[in-house]
């Protein structure tokens, strides 16, 4: 007989509600503080809307009016060293976390005044939203991108589902570095349905990391109701299905949020983490600005009125009045206190237009346009005094012949020995005697606990690595095939590639991405790409492409010491080749921005990368052309060695760029344009570009070979260049 058995989640999934007695049991001072903070958030955002209407905010103002209990209730259980991030609608979370850091434990909204530090937090946050220099990020972040590490705000994100992986990274760093902290990531119903959020939750659960995933379910993503885009609208179910203790609560009730967060933190203390909190709440206004959703026709006025009748501030006010914790006079004083701090901040950031009543922003508060490109990357001062070697040094030291893959494995182990903050992350990195490429072999033999296996979720674990890098670790992430970078493109581009400049600089982003490229192996179109051009589009990345084992040793050492994100490309065609390296030395660095003249010559210049370096050397020998071959090595905008390149072009007056990859994935077009601008008067021939074809490689052997440039392609190019 067929039988049925009800299957229930392995993790707790409960609803948290409060009643009048729970308010009576809570200390009055805490309730009054939460009420005052909600009033402050409301008055702050109302002022933002006034400033927006006056044209004084450049960009959106995604206010959280109606959701104040979520931010204040969540912050109530956090310590100053606990971390948070949010998404585009994060004013209530950020302002409360900033104020909490500056508020004394015995502060009483009924009798005390804001301290200068509290007022300054309001002022600086408002300045940031207005895009002004006194802001926490110097005005670069605005309303949606906010970092104040000293207050535990490690970086909000405007990308839906972009921020949860970062919080998992914060928690990973805290765990591995022995800190007793938790991280909370805030996002809405829309982000709950995105792949990045699911990947982050799964990684946090698999690694038992102390993260609270706080879902603010306000029912609408811009104008689409939650019921239109998912059948299961109980969003906390996403946590339960991944084995994560999950708690649903009334997000309009600050005490219910407090209790849900308290239980979430207790669950983390019991299991190591993570936990989920779903707060059912309502966004009173449209996605951005001061109009109601009903003005746009996607909500009814009746629905909005029902939710406004449950206003979290009004509800708390009535509770506190009935308990005798507040009088009408106390409430008026609290309102005046909050309104006064907000008004004072706005007054410091504006001035009257001469001869009129309108306001304007004083010119001195705007960032200097001349600083537009400052802070994209660091100044590399971390390399002061670092020992460097280059190929020319091999003539004076003892050397040995070592396979590329062996040198890579030994170097990875050496850097992990020197720095306990280095961890390796990726798919299958902990198996197969060193992962699919063998690079983690030596590391696994010595530090298996720092080689972390992660699911097939490149976007998720790249985001986790970013969060870990922002919180004290130096992660090395392995991408199994170059094409998989495009599944991680959101975090590579919108995350790692932008955070330093977007948040105003002044902090490191020490992340290394190791990317394996295998265009010649017959794996087909989805496993054969060289994605270096993707990284080249975003100047927040440094790019290394080694052509020898010696270069790999020096480049990986430089990459892990660097306080900027670095991608290192590993071409599988090189793995079994042997090269000369210093005997027993895996600790030297190769400086950023240093190309190498592999073969001196005077007839023409060939700028080559990776395996094309040897192809160019072979082609020049076969053609009998005295070509000067330069291995660019460092491919990003900041790292091209124009001194070396320029000296060669001035000597030869002809230049060719040789890349193996498909033509439209080539970085050479950008380099050619730069060469034309820099050295036009020294060129006797147009800049030639040698690349593969238009199509990606396919499985067919002849088509695979035809798709890629090689020595014969370079030889044909040399003939054209010298004709």
Largest β-sheet summary: 6 strands, parallel
Corresponding CATH superfamily of the largest domain:
Thiamin diphosphate (ThDP)-binding fold, Pyr/PP domains
CATH architecture of the largest domain: 3-Layer(aba) Sandwich
> What percent of residues are in strands?
5-15%
Strand order of the largest sheet: 1-7-8-4-3-2
Structural class: alpha/beta
Shape: elongated
Number of domains: 3
- Tell me the span between the first and last alpha carbons: 85 Å
Give the number of DSSP strands: 23
Overall helicity: 25-40%
Instruction: Tell me the Rg in angstroms.
Output: 29 Å
CATH third-level topology of the largest domain: Rossmann fold
By CATH reckoning, the class of the largest domain would read Alpha Beta
Taking all residues together, what is the mean pLDDT? 96
Low-confidence stretches: none
GO molecular function: oxidoreductase activity, acting on the aldehyde or oxo group of donors, disulfide as acceptor
Domain Transketolase-like pyrimidine-binding: 402-576
Pfam families: E1_dh, Transket_pyr, Transketolase_C
Protein name: 2-oxoglutarate dehydrogenase E1 component
Indicate the topology:
Elements: E1 13-16, H1 20-25, H2 28-53, H3 68-75, E2 83-85, H4 91-102, H5 116-129, H6 164-176, E3 183-188, H7 189-192, H8 195-207, E4 211-217, E5 220-221, E6 224-225, H9 237-240, E7 246-250, H10 254-271, E8 275-280, H11 301-308, H12 312-323, H13 328-349, E9 351-352, E10 359-360, E11 399-403, H14 404-418, E12 422-426, H15 441-446, E13 451-453, H16 458-469, E14 474-479, H17 489-496, H18 499-502, E15 512-517, H19 532-536, E16 542-544, H20 549-561, E17 566-571, E18 578-582, E19 596-599, E20 604-608, H21 612-623, E21 627-631, H22 642-652, E22 655-658, H23 668-679, E23 688-690, H24 701-706, H25 711-722
Parallel strand pairs: 1-7, 2-3, 3-4, 4-8, 7-8, 12-13, 12-14, 14-15, 15-17, 16-17, 20-21, 20-22, 22-23
Antiparallel strand pairs: 5-6, 9-10, 11-18, 19-21
């Amino acid at each position: 007989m067929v039988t049925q058995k009800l299957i229930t989640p392995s993790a707790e999934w409960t609803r948290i509600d409060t009643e009048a007695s729970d308010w009576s049991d809570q200390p009055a001072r805490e309730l009054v503080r939460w009420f005052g903070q909600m009033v402050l958030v409301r008055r702050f955002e109302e002022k933002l809307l006034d400033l927006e209407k006056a044209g004084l905010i450049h960009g959106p103002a995604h206010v959280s009016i109606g959701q104040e209990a979520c931010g204040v209730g969540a912050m109530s259980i956090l310590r100053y060293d606990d971390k948070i991030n949010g998404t585009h609608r994060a004013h209530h979370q950020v302002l409360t976390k900033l104020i909490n850091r500056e508020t004394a434990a015995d502060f009483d909204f009924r009798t005390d005044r804001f301290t200068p530090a509290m007022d300054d937090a309001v002022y600086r946050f408002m300045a940031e939203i207005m895009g002004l220099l006194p802001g926490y990020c110097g005005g670069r972040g605005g309303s949606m991108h906010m970092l104040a590490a000293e207050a535990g705000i490690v970086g909000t994100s405007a990308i839906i589902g972009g921020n949860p992986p970062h919080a998992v990274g914060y928690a990973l760093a805290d765990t591995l570095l022995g800190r007793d902290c938790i991280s909370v990531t805030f996002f809405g119903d829309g982000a709950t349905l995105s792949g990045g959020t699911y990947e982050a939750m799964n990684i946090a659960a698999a690694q038992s990391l102390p993260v609270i995933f706080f879902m603010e379910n306000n029912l609408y993503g811009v104008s689409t109701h939650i019921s239109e885009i998912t059948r299961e609208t109980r969003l906390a179910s996403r946590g339960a299905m991944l084995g994560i203790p999950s708690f649903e609560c009334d997000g309009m009730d600050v005490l219910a949020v407090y209790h849900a967060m308290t239980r979430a933190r207790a669950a983390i203390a019991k299991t190591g983490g993570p936990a989920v909190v779903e707060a059912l709440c309502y966004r009173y206004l449209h996605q951005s600005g001061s109009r109601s959703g009903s003005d746009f026709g996607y909500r009814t006025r009746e629905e909005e009125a029902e939710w406004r009748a449950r206003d979290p501030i009004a509800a708390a006010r009535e509770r506190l009045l009935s308990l005798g914790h507040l009088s009408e006079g106390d409430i008026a004083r609290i309102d005046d206190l909050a309104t006064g701090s907000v008004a004072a901040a706005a007054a410091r950031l504006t001035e009257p237009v001469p001869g009129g009543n309108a306001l304007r922003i004083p010119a001195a508060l705007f960032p200097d346009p001349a600083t537009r490109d400052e802070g994209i990357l660091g100044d590399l001062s971390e390399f002061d005094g670092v020992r460097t070697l280059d190929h020319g040094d091999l003539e004076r030291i003892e050397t040995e012949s070592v396979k590329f893959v062996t040198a890579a494995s030994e170097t990875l182990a050496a850097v992990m020995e020197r720095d306990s903050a280095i961890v390796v992350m990726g798919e299958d990195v902990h198996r197969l005697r060193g992962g699919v490429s063998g690079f983690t072999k030596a590391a696994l033999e010595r530090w298996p606990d720092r080689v972390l296996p992660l699911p097939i979720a490149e976007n998720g674990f790249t985001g986790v690595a970013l969060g870990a890098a922002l919180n004290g670790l130096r992660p090395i992430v392995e991408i199994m095939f170059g094409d998989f970078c495009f599944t991680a493109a959101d975090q590579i581009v919108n995350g790692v590639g932008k955070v330093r400049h977007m948040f105003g600089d002044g902090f490191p982003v020490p992340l290394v991405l190791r990317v394996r490229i295998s265009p010649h192996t017959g794996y087909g179109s989805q496993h054969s790409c060289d994605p270096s051009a993707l990284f080249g589009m975003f100047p927040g990345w440094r790019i290394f492409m080694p052509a020898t084992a010696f270069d790999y040793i020096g480049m990986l050492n430089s990459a892990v010491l660097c306080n900027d994100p670095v991608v290192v490309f590993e071409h599988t065609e090189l793995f079994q080749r042997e090269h000369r390296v210093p005997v027993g030395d895996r600790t030297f660095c190769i400086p950023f921005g240093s190309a190498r003249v592999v073969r001196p010559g005077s007839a023409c210049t060939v700028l080559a990368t990776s395996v094309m370096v040897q192809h160019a050397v072979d082609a020049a020998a076969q053609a009998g052309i005295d070509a000067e071959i330069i291995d660019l090595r460092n491919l990003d905008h900041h790292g091209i060695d124009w001194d070396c390149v320029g000296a060669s072009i001035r000597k030869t007056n002809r230049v060719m760029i040789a890349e193996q990859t498909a033509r439209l994935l080539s970085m050479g077009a950008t380099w050619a344009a730069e060469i034309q601008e820099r050295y036009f008067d020294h060129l006797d021939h147009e800049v030639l570009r040698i690349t593969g074809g238009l199509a990606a490689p396919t499985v067919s052997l002849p088509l695979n070979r035809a798709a890629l440039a090689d020595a014969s392609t370079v030889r044909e190019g040399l003939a054209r260049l010298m004709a």
